[in-house]
C-alpha cells in the first residue's frame, strides 16, 4: 500500500483514509458509497489489500461508464484516475490507449485468456510456463532474456 492510504503500514485501509483517497477520483459520494459497500462486503469498515484493489477496479469501471457492480470487475478498463499529483495511479491527460507500451482494451481479454490458460497459481506464473509462450513471439533469445 502507498503511505497515502496506509500511513501506519498495517496492510489495511481504514474507511476514513480510503474515503479521502477515493474522493480524489472525482466520483460522486453516492457512487463512492456503492463502491465501498461492494469492496467492504462484510461491513467491517476496513479494507484488506485485495478489497482495496476491488475498490480501485470499481472506481475505474465507474470512470469509464460501466456499472458499479461485482460483475464489472473482470471487464477491461484502464487504471483509475486520481487528481492528487502524489498519487501513484495518477494518469496524465494522455489516454492509456495513446501510450505505445499500454495494452489496448481490445487486446486485454485475449491476453487475460492466454494468462489464465497457463493455470496461474495464486495469480502468478512460473518462468517455465511463460517461456514457451514468449518463444512463440519469434523475438531473438537475447531480447527474450531481458524480458
From TrEMBL:
One of its GO terms (biological process) is endosomal transport. Gene3D superfamilies: EF-hand. It comes from the Eukaryota. Pfam families: EH. Residues 1-83, 107-147 form the EH domain. CDD domains: EH. InterPro entries: EF-hand-dom_pair, EF_hand_dom, EH_dom. Residues 27-62 form the EF-hand domain. GO terms for cellular component: clathrin coat of coated pit. PROSITE patterns: EF_HAND_2, EH. One of its GO terms (molecular function) is cadherin binding. PANTHER family: EH DOMAIN (PTHR11216), EPIDERMAL GROWTH FACTOR RECEPTOR SUBSTRATE 15 (PTHR11216:SF54). This is EPS15 factor.
